[in-house]
Design a protein that fits this description.
The structure holds two protein chains of two kinds.
Chain A (H helix, E strand, L loop, with lengths): L1 H9 L7 H17 L18 E4 L8 H7 L2 H6 L7 E3 L2 E10 L3 E10 L10 E7 L5 E9 L4 E9 L8 E19 L4 H4 L6 E5 L5 E3 L3 H7 L1 E5 L14 E9 L2 E8 L7 E7 L5 E2 L2 E7 L5 E13 L9 E22 L1 E2 L4 E8 L3 E9 L2 E8 L9 E5 L4 E3 L2 E4 L5 E7 L9 E6 L2 E4 L1
Parallel strand pairs in A: 3-19
Antiparallel strand pairs in A: 1-25, 2-3, 3-4, 4-7, 5-8, 6-7, 8-18, 9-11, 10-16, 12-13, 13-17, 14-15, 14-18, 16-17, 20-21, 21-22, 22-26, 23-24, 23-27, 25-26, 27-28
Chain B lengths: L1 H4 L3 H23 L2 H18 L9 H21 L25 H7 L2 H12 L4 H8 L3 H21 L1
Helix pairs in contact in B: 2-3, 2-4, 2-6, 3-4, 6-8, 7-8
Classes of the chains: A mainly beta, B mainly alpha.
């Protein structure tokens, strides 16, 4: 008899969006579980002339910097001794503790210590800084010692051989701390919001501060591109007050998501990305610009337009997520030091024929600055790679950040440890569990 | 299930997916429209994932979901009504314990004729095949009450059939 009730209930049609709604409920709960608590190391990319991608790989806990210094060989430890007089500004001392370069890049280690307040924390990010001779940088914090209010940063620049034994100048005028990172599910009902063609405005790519991503060069070559008319929507993301989505639409087979940044936040930044069931991430191209009083685009950074190739995404199969960062403190000052680069050429090489999906490696080399893989194909920065160095004493050093110098189907990707590798003591390298003996 | 309880959203969704159509249909019976029924599903997903760690015995997952579903559906009705209709006290229903369901019963009868508490018992009994013991646990009512509510509901449906 219960069949009759079942039969009647089966007559209730199941709407298409049912599963999406379950998913959204779970995502909403998930975002609340983690809101404001996820803190990740972020590597800000300062205006670059090259398409260079950098990312932290994994979130390995880095032991105290001083412990690591004690742990490395005397030769490496020597590299990590203060190399020039420090510079102090407004109660904060900056010291360059090491500076070295290999064929691809230059790395300096800098400590910052706050004598008077609590302006330094484990989320510290450099904001305005320069390293003479190197043309593209990123920095990341490798250690924070709460007892002494000292942060140790690793700053990486492009330059390679041309920097050999050169006298360098590192200058810093501002940094951020009290960083909060948000990972959010974007509830924008993309199928519906993009069902009508949006209104657009022209943007001169030669009059913007920059952007990034795979399509950027193409857009720049186009000169004038169409972007969404600003402020047609006002979609805020859970827990995020420093920005909102100011329009969404599809222009020329590309999904555009425009965000407007709250002017009072100095360095709110982040990106949207799509992710599918297998955790594949699709990242956008981004373009920054401003809007004048008449609503015309101009040079500025109040707006960012994130652009996805529509062919690579599927609204039903993939979720739109956002990764956004804001900072509570913006500290200014003037810290300036001059020092000499130390060139570290002690490299070891080996053949390595491996397939990494979109590219094949040919060889691998090791220098104190990291492990570099060379190969052919298209490097895919969203595929995670696990690279470790096994040392002769049995210890393992994790190479937890990555920089790709790939171009024109030539792949060159470098995996970098927090502290220099003592190449003479490397027994083998593990790449995704494959061991390469040296 | 262990993964789901540890907060793995994908594992949780895989399990939840097996029940979402049931949840939707049950919700529909209470809220009577697609939009609200979808809201119920979303809310059940939200609440259940948020509280999954409190579920001590994974074998009760379904029972637990049904309980959340009924509560969410009733909450949405209350919200929509603004004026809350008082549910009459459970009177001991003295009648036959005949579980026969009129064959001409329609979905509309179920939706229109039954009160919320009656819908809950009917759905759990006939749609989810729960025992009276399980029903009394989910609805937090005595077993005898579960039975009498069910018989009252069936009686109403039969009357409806006669009148119709």
């Amino acid at each position: 008899m219960s069949n009759k009730i079942k039969q009647e209930l089966e007559r209730i049609d199941i709407p298409k969006e049912l599963h999406e709604r379950s998913k959204f409920g779970v995502m909403k709960a998930k975002s609340e579980k983690t809101k404001g608590r996820i803190k990740k190391l972020a590597i800000p990319l300062v205006a670059s002339a090259f398409v260079v991608f950098s990312a932290g790989v994994g979130a390995a806990r880095i032991p105290s910097f001083n412990n690591l210094v004690a742990f490395v060989s005397p030769e490496i430890a020597l590299m990590l001794q203060p190399i020039e007089i420090s510079s102090e500004s407004d109660g904060i001392k900056m010291e360059v503790v090491a500076a070295m370069n290999d064929n691809e890049m230059a790395v300096i280690y800098v400590t910052l210590q706050d004598f008077t307040g609590n302006r330094i924390d484990e989320t510290l990010d450099l904001y305005d800084y320069s390293l003479t001779g190197a043309h593209m940088f990123n920095s990341r914090i490798v250690d924070y010692d709460g007892k002494t209010n000292t942060a140790t940063l690793r700053i990486q620049g492009n330059g390679g051989e041309s920097l050999n034994d050169r006298k360098m100048n590192f200058r810093m005028t501002s940094f951020l701390s009290e960083k909060q990172t948000f990972e959010v599910e974007v509830d924008a009902n993309l199928s519906e919001t993009t069902s009508k063609p949006p209104q657009t405005v022209p943007l001169d790519m030669n009059n913007i501060p920059g952007g990034g991503g795979k399509l950027y060069q193409k857009l720049e070559d186009q000169g004038i591109v169409q972007v969404l008319k600003p402020n047609e929507t006002d979609i805020s993301l859970p827990g995020i007050e420093f920005m909102h989505i100011s329009n969404i639409g599809i222009i020329d087979h590309r999904l555009h998501i425009q965000t407007r940044w709250n002017k009072e936040i100095v360095d709110g930044h982040g990106y949207f990305y799509f992710v599918d069931d297998t955790d594949n991430e699709i990242h956008p191209t981004s373009v920054n610009f401003g809007i004048d009083e008449e609503g015309h685009t101009n040079y500025g950074d109040e707006y960012t337009e994130y652009i996805f190739d529509i062919e690579s995404i599927d609204f039903n199969e993939q979720e739109l997520l956002g990764h956004f960062v804001s900072n509570g403190k913006f500290i200014t000052g003037d810290w300036n030091t001059t020092f000499k680069m130390q060139s570290v050429q002690a490299e070891m090489n080996s053949d390595l024929n491996e397939n990494f999906g979109t590219w094949n490696s040919k060889s691998v080399s090791i220098s104190p600055l990291g492990v570099t893989l060379y190969g052919n194909g298209i490097f895919n920065d969203s595929i995670e790679m696990d690279v470790r160095a096994k040392m002769t004493d049995g210890s393992v050093q994790i190479l937890d950040s990555m920089t790709s110098f790939s171009e024109d189907k030539q792949v060159k990707v470098k995996f970098i440890p927090s502290l220099p590798l003592d190449v003479s003591k490397v027994k083998s390298i593990y790449i995704n569990d494959k061991e390469i003996e040296f | 299930m262990k993964k789901a309880q540890k907060g793995n959203d994908k594992a949780f969704l895989n399990i939840f997916q097996q029940y979402e159509e049931d949840i939707y249909r049950m919700a529909f019976l209470y809220v009577k429209n697609q939009e609200d029924a979808l809201d119920v599903v979303q809310e059940v997903a939200y609440q259940s994932f948020k509280k999954i760690h409190t579920l001590k015995k994974p074998e009760y997952f379904k029972t637990w979901l049904m309980k959340i579903t009924i509560n969410c559906a009733i909450n949405i009705i209350k919200k929509n009504m603004k004026v809350i209709q008082l549910i009459p006290e459970f009177e001991e229903f003295v009648g036959s314990d005949d579980e026969d369901i009129p064959l001409s019963l329609t979905l509309q009868n179920l939706i229109d004729t039954l009160q919320e508490d009656e819908k809950s018992v009917v759905l759990l009994r006939y749609y989810q095949n729960f025992t009276f013991k399980e029903i009394s646990e989910v609805l937090e009512i005595p077993l005898g009450t579960a039975k009498s509510v069910l018989y009252r509901a069936l009686d109403k449906l039969r009357k409806e059939f006669k009148e119709g």
